[in-house]
Amino acid sequence: MKPQLLRLFVLIIASCALIVWSFNLIYSAFDDAYGYNLDAEALLRQGSLEFRDIPAGHIAFSAELMEKLAAGQLISLGRENGESYYYQQLENGDLREMGPVVSRPGSDKITALIPLLYASLALTILLLIGRVFKDLSLLQSKALSFGDSPQKLKTGIRPRSAIYPLALSFETMTAQIMDFLQLHKDLSRTISHEIRTPLSRMRFALELSREQLPEQYLSRLSQDIDQIEELTRSYLSFAQVEHQQHKQTRQWLDADAFMADLLSKFSIYADRFQFSLQLDCQASGGKIQIDPLSMELAAQNLIANALRYAGKQIRISLLATERHWTLTVADDGPGFDDKGSELRRAFERGQKEQSSGYGLGLYIVRKIAIWHQGTVKIKRDSDLGGAAISLRWRRPVF
């Protein structure tokens, strides 16, 4: 930052010097225009200055001017035509009149230098902050572009700029973030392809060995394989959410159709659980504005969470108000403990015996809520007695 600070210091000093020089020119112009001495001899030679004596009562002076004349002072009187006459009291009480004297007009330099002063001030401001604001605007546009489509960026800001160190740090940061994202995608791809294949072989081998192994070992191995597959699915969902933000598109959908399609995916659980639906979107004309893929993923996570903890009943509601939509999934299970707020973070799990999974479900829901400018609220349902998780997001303002 030292070269940038030195250039800024030199620029400020040069700008201040320019302002002082402009003020000096204006002061000199005023002095030339209005501060001059009368050359009486030159005026006499030119015949433009005349002397004549007049009686004391010929001109009616005020009492104040009479006192100045009596004290020997020289006074002047101006006329509308721009001529000035000077008066002095003689020893015999008469007055001596000198004139006429025509005042010189003011210099035209003043009119020209005042705009120069304002121009110098404007130039100073432009030199001080103009380039900085231009570079900051460029950096801002690059940051917004990175938010919309992550990629390694070059800001194009020159090394002589005052914010070049900041721009250089931004370029380094974007490169590191893209490296991490690529590493994350590669890891997700590896988990998806390289782990599921051996798991499938293990499950196939386990089925072939079913008659040769005791039931307790078969059950233990089957549970371990299921746990690894569950971890793999959770991680893939987590990776999908982490990288999907810049691809989301908000659309207007029919609320009834969205909820019907959502419930159809859980119809296989109808014999074990009682599903109830509350739908009221009349305030928004029966429609909702969402990103279909991400909101469906959030709703599925909420319902899957309810299936894990519910005893028998699960209630799903979608309500529209004047400013928000609210999707709530409630169950008659044990509910959450005091860690409700912490469960919205990644890899946080409940402490109850029924708690399972890997702490990613509610984190995914919270991320999707943030994308929709919404919030997630966890509380105990007053009717069913279990947990009630609500995802609320804003309606567009027209």
TrEMBL record:
Q: Name one GO molecular function term.
A: kinase activity
* CDD domains the record matches: HisKA
Please indicate which superkingdom the organism of origin belongs to.
Answer: Bacteria
Membrane topology note: Multi-pass membrane protein
Coarse class of the primary localization is: membrane
Q: Which reaction does it catalyse?
A: ATP + protein L-histidine = ADP + protein N-phospho-L-histidine
Q: Which Gene3D superfamilies match?
A: 1.10.287.130, Histidine kinase-like ATPase, C-terminal domain (3.30.565.10)
EC number of the protein: 2.7.13.3
Q: Where are the transmembrane segments?
A: 7-30, 110-133
Keywords assigned: ATP-binding, Cell membrane, Kinase, Membrane, Nucleotide-binding, Transferase, Transmembrane, Transmembrane helix
Subcellular localization, as worded in the UniProt entry? Cell membrane
Domain Histidine kinase residues, every copy = 190-397
Q: Which PANTHER family match?
A: SENSOR PROTEIN CREC, SENSOR PROTEIN RSTB
Specify the protein name. Answer: histidine kinase
Per the UniProt entry, what species is this protein from, by scientific name?
A: Shewanella jiangmenensis
Taxonomic lineage is: Bacteria, Pseudomonadati, Pseudomonadota, Gammaproteobacteria, Alteromonadales
